[in-house]
Amino acid sequence: MTGTTLSDRAILRISGEEGKAFLQGLLTRDVLTLTPGQPRWTGLLTPQGKALFDFILWAEGDDILIDCEAAQADALARRLTIYRLRRKVTIAREEGLAVHWSPDATDQPLDPRLPALGHRWLASATPGDAAPAFRAHRLALGVFEGAAELGQDQTLWLETNAEELNGVDYDKGCYVGQENTARMHYRNKVSRRLVAVPIAQADEKRQRAALPDIGLSIELRRVETLDPATLPAWLATAIESQAAE
Predict the structure, then answer these.
(1) pTM of the prediction?
(2) 8 A C-beta contact, residue 243 and residue 222
(3) Which of 215, 156, 147 has its CA nearest to residue 190?
(4) pLDDT, tens only, 25-61
């Protein structure tokens, strides 16, 4: 790997006296308790609880920095602007910072989704690009992100394995898509999951993304059809625990 900058990520800055309260009413994670050095993965959902955007939140003073997919940054900013109405909130690209990743930068925060993903931080961009290495590492662990992999307005948030990857708070109050997300959780109704299968076994009806360069197909499959031996350990354990409840 050369460098630590993730070239496929961008940063939005949310500022203004109502910025945190604004995001609190929209996102799946608690924004009001966010602290520096403790990032949180979250989602912006449809009213039906389907994923539109996923991203990582960082606290910086009174501002919130959104570590998001670069290809979707402008669309995300536009979506947030729709919800802003007359609130005293500024939404802008943060060009002075970049997202960085390393598997062994132990002085930096761990990825909030899964410790095995490695370390993640914000700083000025540096030469080199770690995006291909991080993508391969992330997919090897069965962690999906972005519009292509999660699907926009296609996949329910809990079906993306969001609960297991620390992507939802159940005691933070209302947010867009909260009703259906909470109902699925409390009724134990997560019957389908996003998983990666060998592309030779792809089922186009269930496919969210085809990744021929690494021989994988990301698909939404029913839990009862999944072989625990083919799943990442963290997901197999979660499914087994759900079945035992």
Answers:
(1) 0.95
(2) no
(3) 156
(4) 999 999 999 999 999 999 999 999 999 999 999 999 9
